[in-house]
Specification:
Strand content of chain B: 15-25%
Order of helices and strands of chain A: EHEHEHEHEH
Helix content of chain A: 40-55%
Strand content of chain A: 15-25%
Mean pLDDT of chain A: 87
Number of strands of chain B: 26
Number of strands of chain A: 5
Low-confidence stretches of chain B: 697-701
Largest interface: A-B, 22 and 33 residues
Number of helices of chain B: 15
Largest sheet of chain B: 6 strands, antiparallel
Low-confidence stretches of chain A: none
Oligomer: heterodimer
Largest sheet of chain A: 5 strands, parallel
Number of helices of chain A: 5
Strand order of the largest sheet of chain A: 2-1-3-4-5
Radius of gyration of chain B: 73 Å
Chain lengths: ~120, ~700
């Protein structure tokens, strides 16, 4: 499956910029969407006709954090893969997130080029 | 005055009195019967004594008849006949033949005796210096010529005491009357086999030459041949009678022939009885009058105590002693028990008093779960009076949701004697109070289960402290977690962005490099703000600040000047309604933090989409105290997030501002420190925050 659209959910403008830059630097064809909290992400996914193929999701956010988002999103029809992208190295956070079926991976910020290459390569 | 042993004393006296009474009554009956028996025995014994004396007198008559029937009685004849008499009566000391010897016949009598083998025989009389001597010359002699038994009576052979008045009179009387005549009682010359000397009498019976007794005194004196003499030991006669009659009474025999003096012949026991118990009679013995008295041997005239009397006395004294001792013991035991009861009562009162006054609730619950005792502390905890609770089932005081705990505790107490649990009680006023309950199984003296002792203490404060501690721990954990995340996050971002900057410069893509630097700047500013707030929070938690007078108007004015650099400050209409004289005695830094943050939030979260954005700052007093109010028509707080308004790291408008999310949390904590209340009212458009400070702190408004 070719990844054409990635949703980055993070409340930090700097992290949003960083993640988008890294993804686009690897593959300019990937459409990078942005949301600043879980609630915005759910609304965006709901509005999109073409759902994202992958979601990079931070955990700590105002309004709706990563775990609250997963509680709702995991119950939706055909949820896409979610990679938790966070600066929290807390094992509890890791275990709780990985317990959701749609969560593919749990990685620490910043998002690096090799990881994106790896994911893109596997998908191709 | 209380006499502790008066009752035993009275019992003892009563017992002795009853014993004496019963004894007296019994003795009355017994004496009557005894008297009849005694008198009968007296008479019987008296009769026997008289008969036995009479028998002995008859024996001398027999000897007289023997002489009268014999022409001549040789010494051998006399011995044989006398021996027969002596065998009949052991009371006879001696039987003698006393011939009438004229002086001219003295020699021939002497020769005849010598011829009979008594070589030293002579008519003798007591010598003045003791012993005997030949009788002086008299016309007539009455010597003892024959005597049987000879052994022991040798001394009297030939004896004719010239001065023995009673002997002379008896001989004279017997001669003249022709009948037996007795002497007055004499101390016998002979000794018995034990060497003792007794009183006895001499009985003389005349023997005439004539056949029979001459009919006149002269003829009898002229015809007198001699006299048979019997020496009688009266004491032996009576002893024999007493032995043969089996009546152990006293016998006294007195010779009353002489009207001036009484001569005691014999007395077996002293007379110690009433005259009514004595039977007496006067008997003629050889012309003398003997008074014979027979009487019982009873001391004080009461008679001998019978077995029944002794039984009554012993039983009476025994029962008296028993009851006296028993009552004394009962009184003693009672005094001990009273002492113990008194001590125990005192202890119980002290314990009861302590139980009543203790701050811990104490109650006793029966098998059915109803209160049988409730102390004041227990009732007060539940909001009831003790009277209201006694009789009630105790589950009325326990919150319904904790009834399972109660049931489990009851079971555990039954098994393990004791159980403890914490529960919530529903006070009468509806208040929920956390209590710790200790239940102890209550048992009776037979170790049977009868209920529970219940000890209850209020742990509400501890519970609240635990909740606060738990909240504090949770906050601390969240603080550590969020701090580490929020501190690390901008740094990690900045590092990543610096790599982009480096790469962009290398590839001459300066636009990306500049944009990245802008993001780095934003991240670092965010980090700086976070560090500032963390420091402020730390400072707030640990500083110990004194109250000072704070002018509210000045504080608001200073805050506005400090915040006027914030974006969109100038587009706001800010209305301050605080009088210059409005001041408070309060911890200044706390109030300053609250005021600055409330105004800062109102500025940051203004609704830039509207033209008439405003902030209205006012302070006033109402019944709750001093109120500092900040009202705005800004973005407000979304409804779904209002419940976590005062928690750490909460940001509800991330796009509009880069707050740390600690501002409201710090405001709430500061309000707590100055004992104020921070409340929020959500308007259709905007928000109202009110800081309410209690009246006592709002002095000098």
């Amino acid at each position: 499956m070719i990844i054409k659209r990635i949703l980055v959910v993070d409340d930090s403008e700097a992290d949003q910029f960083l993640s988008k830059y890294m993804i686009e630097s690897v593959c300019k064809e990937i459409d990078v969407l942005q949301a600043y909290n879980g609630k915005e992400a759910l609304n965006l996914i709901d509005e999109l006709d073409q759902k994202p193929d992958l979601i990079f999701f931070d955990i700590n956010m105002p309004i709706m954090n990563g775990l609250e988002f997963l509680d709702i999103y995991t119950k939706s029809d055909q949820p896409c893969s979610v990679v938790m992208l966070t600066s929290s190295d807390d094992q509890n956070d890791r275990d709780r997130c990985m317990a959701y079926g749609c969560v593919q991976d749990y990685i620490l910020k910043p998002l690096d080029r090799e990881y994106i290459l790896n994911i893109a390569g596997q998908r191709r | 005055m209380k006499v502790p042993y008066l009752l035993p004393l009275l019992t003892c006296i009563l017992g002795l009195f009853l014993t004496a009474t019963v004894y007296s009554i019994h003795k009355g009956f017994e004496n009557k019967e005894d008297l009849q028996i005694i008198m009968s025995d007296n008479k019987s014994l008296l009769s026997n004594v008289k008969i036995d004396i009479g028998k002995n007198i008859l024996l001398i008559n027999t000897l007289q008849a023997f002489y009268n029937a014999s022409t001549e009685v040789s010494r051998e004849d006399f011995r044989v006949f006398s021996q027969a008499l002596l065998d009949i009566s052991p009371s006879i000391q001696a039987v003698e033949w006393v011939p009438r010897v004229t002086h001219k016949d003295r020699y021939s009598f002497q020769q005849k005796a010598i011829k009979d083998g008594f070589h030293d025989f002579d008519i003798i009389e007591p010598a003045p210096g003791g012993g005997f001597m030949p009788s002086e010359k008299r016309d007539v002699y009455y010597p003892v010529y024959y005597v049987e038994p000879l052994e022991g009576n040798e001394v009297v052979l030939g004896l004719d005491p010239p001065n023995h008045k009673s002997r002379i009179e008896a001989i004279s009387t017997a001669t003249k009357t022709g009948e037996v005549a007795a002497t007055s009682p004499v101390m016998l010359t002979q000794e018995n086999k034990y060497g003792e000397r007794y009183k006895g009498i001499l009985l003389f019976s005349p023997v005439y030459y004539w056949d029979g007794v001459p009919d006149s005194v002269d003829k009898r004196e002229a015809a007198l041949n001699g006299l048979v003499l019997m020496v009688l030991r009266v004491s032996d006669v009576v002893k024999y009678t007493l032995a043969t009659s089996n009546i152990d009474h006293g016998v006294t025999i007195i010779d009353v022939s002489d009207e001036t003096t009484d001569d005691l012949i014999y007395q077996s026991a002293k007379i110690n009885v009433n005259e009514g118990l004595i039977v007496e009679d006067v008997m003629d013995v050889g012309g003398r009058k003997w008074k014979i008295c027979v009487y019982p041997k009873i001391v004080n005239g009461g008679g001998v105590l019978g077995a029944t009397s002794w039984a009554i006395i012993f039983a009476g004294l025994g029962l008296t002693a028993f009851f006296t001792f028993a009552i004394s013991q009962l009184i003693y035991q009672r005094k001990i028990v009273e002492g113990l009861v008194k001590d125990r009562t005192k202890e119980v009162r002290e314990l009861s008093s302590a139980m009543e006054k203790t701050v811990e609730g104490v109650s006793v619950i029966n098998k059915k779960g109803s209160f049988t005792y409730v102390n004041e502390a227990y009732a007060a905890l539940c909001g009831y009076s003790t009277q209201e609770l006694v009789g009630e089932n105790w589950n009325v005081t326990i919150a319904e949701e904790d009834h399972p705990l109660l049931i489990d505790a009851c079971k555990q107490a039954m098994d393990d004697v004791k159980a403890e649990f914490e529960a919530c009680i529903n006070a009468k006023n509806g208040e929920d109070i956390n209590v710790r309950i200790s239940m102890v199984k209550k048992m009776d003296e037979k170790r049977g289960f009868v209920g529970y002792y219940c000890f209850m203490s209020d742990v509400t404060q501890r519970k609240q402290a635990e909740i606060k501690l738990k909240q504090a721990n949770e906050e601390l954990e969240e603080f550590a977690y969020r701090t580490s995340h929020d501190l690390r996050s901008p740094l990690v971002s900045s590092i990543g962005l610096l790599n982009i900057v480096k790469f962009s410069i290398e590839t001459n893509d300066y636009d990306i490099a500049l944009e990245s630097v802008g993001h780095i700047e934003g991240s670092l500013k965010s980090l700086d703000a976070l560090v500032d707030e963390i420091l402020a929070l730390t400072k707030m938690k640990y500083s110990d600040e004194e109250d000072v007078r704070v002018d509210i108007y000045e504080l608001v004015d200073d805050s506005l000047k400090k915040l006027d650099h914030l974006p969109n400050f100038d587009r706001l209409t800010i209305d301050v309604n605080c009088t210059p004289s409005c001041s408070l005695q309060v911890k200044k830094s706390r109030l300053k933090l609250i005021v600055e943050n409330l105004i800062s939030n109102a500025i940051k979260y203004q609704d830039t989409s509207r033209e008439d954005s405003y902030i209205k700052i006012s302070c006033y007093s109402n019944y709750e105290g001093f109120v500092f109010e900040v009202r705005d028509n800004g973005l407000g707080i979304p409804e779904e997030f209002r419940d976590r308004l005062f928690r750490m790291f909460q940001r509800f408008h991330p796009k509009e501002s880069y707050g740390s999310g600690l501002g409201l949390y710090m405001m709430k904590k500061s309000a707590d420190i100055i004992s104020a209340d921070l409340i929020v009212e959500h308007l259709t458009q905007g928000t109202v925050f009110k800081l309410i400070i209690p009246v006592n702190q709002g002095e000098g408004l």
